[in-house]
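Take just one protein record:
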Amino acid sequence: MAIKDVQTYIDRHGLVETEDSEAGKPIWRKPGFDGIRGLLEIEEELSRFLRERRDAQNLNREQVGIMVGLHHEIYARHERAGAKLRVTRLLHLAELLDFSPIEAIYAAAPQFFGETEQEAEVRFKLVMRMLDLPAATAQNLLMLVEELSPDSGTDNATKPTDPKRRG
């Protein structure tokens, strides 16, 4: 059942009405560290991240294009923010260029990881460290964190995520 009053939802989530050249009409966004960045600006950050990852793997655009099933000029549009990057394409590129999609999200929109730049950086580093842990260590760490959590005693695996605690 849908919410009857969308304005209540907008207010509760701190969304701000803004104009964006990509949308062509008013949209609602949540401000980041430096206000509201345009969707094109976020796309440009993703593009920069992809170029850096490709370069780090010593691959050229033609080689990545072959592996992703695109002509290199079409792939190059992703690196120039000239083509929208679908999530499925991002996941495929993460496989090919050996990065976590979390790294791409942080590069483009670090505000998803915390209220301040410093908080976001700490949480990002923590997440990346956790991804490298052996499974048994990760399980032990999860149990410890659940014990330290203010809502311990509830089943966190089935509890909905509080949007203020994302990251």
